[in-house]
Design a protein that fits this description.
Among the domains are: 43 residues; 204 residues, Alpha-Beta Horseshoe (Leucine-rich repeat, LRR (right-handed beta-alpha superhelix)). Strands 1-2-3-4-5-6-7-8-9-10-11-12-13-14-15-16 form a 16-stranded parallel sheet. The protein has 20 helices and 16 strands. The protein is globular and about 75 Å long. The chain is of the alpha/beta class. The relative contact order is 0.04. The two termini are 56 Å apart. Helix 8 packs parallel to helix 9 and helix 11 packs parallel to helix 12.
């Protein structure tokens, strides 16, 4: 029989849904009963449960269609366990906040924490197709641990586990959990607690866990995020685990407690552990006197062993990133590193200069530069730094925030003409001009407007940036661009599609801009003229 509805075909329907928001699907369901029957199941794929399951209309009828449950409070799962029947569930989050709520009140006797955890792990046995699991547990309870281990062994489709343990965990339990997740591609493990009263029994547990880890078979994990507050877990769990991850591509280590771990990690990586490691996100712990990053980076290059691909991306989230780490990158990772993202720190100009003049394959950089002064840069080396050419001429994405112009109100004043920041900007823009493959550029360096054709501006030097598609300028820039700049941009930046005049991608604190105001009339003229010449360019201000 001929189909009587355009969306009867499941392939067409699935392709359409890729481009619709839940609200769009809801409106589509209201157009007809036929459309309702065809599309209402898809609305249950990402249903967010913030109320008791008993009170959700239609849940019983459509439970089989639910695939993703986000932010499900643990208390709802426990109280409504009789209504828990999701045979096709693929992803679930038992949010940590709820677990914290239970544990905060467990001491008063109102809540039995172990009982709550036990009910949670038993629920997992009812969802055989589960692929992604986020859960917080106290695995020090033997019943909870045994049932959780059994649940993991039954979840043969599990691909990603995010587990947080807020209490001390027997290290042999950790090993068994990891071994039960050997097929997972993503492991996110957070262990906290204290073992300050560790005795002979606990010492034997760590020794046994290390033996079990070393005898364990290889894992399929490609992304590993590991955080612990216990130093003994580093030698017993962390280092042996890395030796069992031949497919690992992305590694996050949130802290290292003892310096001996750095040597163990160095030896493991140098001896061939994690040969496919491409992405690294370290977070230095302040308890270490020496920064471990230079040591670790020295054994992450493509020359460290047979089949090693070499580190391609590093994300620095710590506020500690010193010149020694930059030198380690240029010495050991110059042939592999393509992305350097510094999230929170203010980087000295000397460190930034070492990266862009020593990493020829860089394609993406995110950094924020500290103001330049005798306190932040070696003046004796300044001229030498400004004579070095950038080697990353294939750079495609540059997100650069700068406090170099801090305290300089105008590019026309003598304080600018005679300043170190001007000498630095002269150098920087001479290098920007060579980035002919640059496609996305966020540049926050207020309060001075450097993108003008007049005195003090650098726009005229940038005519070779014909590949630039997106330009983002900081919200605290004192814009003076006008009609001349619009004509120039329209003529030379032929690929430009988007101009963001309030970019917040690289937040930089610029103080004392009260003395200067943007030329609003000139800026409006710039936007109007550029839009009239290039109608497809979008603006944000």
């Amino acid at each position: 029989m001929e189909k009587d509805h355009a969306f009867d075909d499941a392939v067409i329907r699935a392709e359409l849904i890729k481009h619709l928001t839940p609200r769009n699907i809801l409106h589509l369901c209201c157009t007809s009963k036929k459309a309702f029957d065809l599309f209402i199941p898809h609305l249950w794929h990402t249903r967010r449960f913030y109320t008791n399951l008993k009170n959700i209309p239609g849940l019983k009828r459509y439970q089989k269609h639910v695939k993703v449950i986000k932010d499900l409070s643990i208390d709802l799962a426990v109280e409504s366990r009789d209504f828990w029947s999701f045979p096709n569930l693929q992803s679930v989050q038992f949010v940590q906040q709820s677990a914290g709520h239970f544990r905060a009140y467990s001491s008063s006797g109102n809540v039995n924490t172990a009982r709550v955890d036990l009910r949670l792990v038993l629920l997992l046995k009812t969802v055989p197709l589960l692929q992604n699991l986020t859960i917080t547990l106290a695995l020090d309870n033997s019943d909870v641990f045994q049932h959780f281990l059994a649940s993991l062994q039954s979840l043969t489709h599990l691909q990603k586990l995010k587990m947080t343990c807020t209490e001390y965990v027997n290290p042999t339990h950790i090993q068994k959990v990891i071994n039960a997740c050997r097929q997972c591609e993503g492991l996110y493990l957070t262990f906290s607690g204290a073992d300050s009263f560790k005795g002979i029994e606990e010492k034997e547990e760590y020794e046994q866990a290390k033996i079990d880890m070393e005898e364990m078979g290889d894992l399929a994990v490609k992304t590993l995020k590991l955080s612990t507050t216990l130093a003994d877990q580093e030698a017993a769990i962390m280092v042996p685990l890395l030796k069992k991850c031949p497919l690992l591509e992305e590694l996050h280590i949130f802290n290292i407690m003892v310096p001996e771990t750095v040597d163990l990690l160095k030896d493991a990586l140098r001896d061939g552990a994690c040969p496919k490691l491409r992405i690294f996100q370290p977070n230095r712990d302040n308890s270490l006197k020496e920064d471990p990053l230079p040591v670790l980076l020295s054994v992450m290059g493509p020359d460290r062993g047979m089949g090693a691909v070499g580190l391609e991306k590093i994300t620095i989230t710590s506020s500690h990133f010193k010149f020694e780490s930059a030198v380690a990158m240029t010495e050991h990772l110059s042939q592999s590193l393509t992305q350097v993202h510094c999230q929170d720190l203010m980087m000295n100009f000397e460190v930034f200069n070492e990266l862009v003049t020593g990493l020829p394959h860089l394609q993406s950089v995110r950094a924020r530069l500290n103001e330049i002064s005798v306190q932040t840069v070696d003046i004796n080396k300044f001229d030498q730094m400004c004579s070095r050419d950038w080697v990353c001429l294939g750079l495609k994405k540059l997100q650069l925030g700068s406090q170099l112009t801090q305290g300089i109100p105008t590019v026309k004043g003598d304080s600018w003409k005679q300043s170190l920041p001007k000498r630095c900007m002269d150098y920087m823009f001479s290098q920007f001009a060579k980035l002919e493959q640059l496609e996305e550029w966020d540049f926050v360096a207020g309060p001075v407007d450097l993108f003008i054709l007049g005195a003090g501006g650098y726009l005229r030097q940038l005519e070779n940036l014909t590949s630039l598609r997106r330009l983002g300028l900081g919200p605290k820039t004192v814009y003076r661009m006008g009609s001349k700049e619009a004509e120039w941009v329209a003529e030379h930046w032929t690929s430009l599609e988007y101009v963001d005049l309030a970019s917040s991608n690289v937040p930089v604190l610029i103080i004392d801009i009260s003395r200067v105001k943007p030329d609003k009339l000139a800026l409006d003229t710039f936007i109007h003229n550029l839009r009239s010449r290039r109608p497809r360019i979008a603006f944000k201000k």
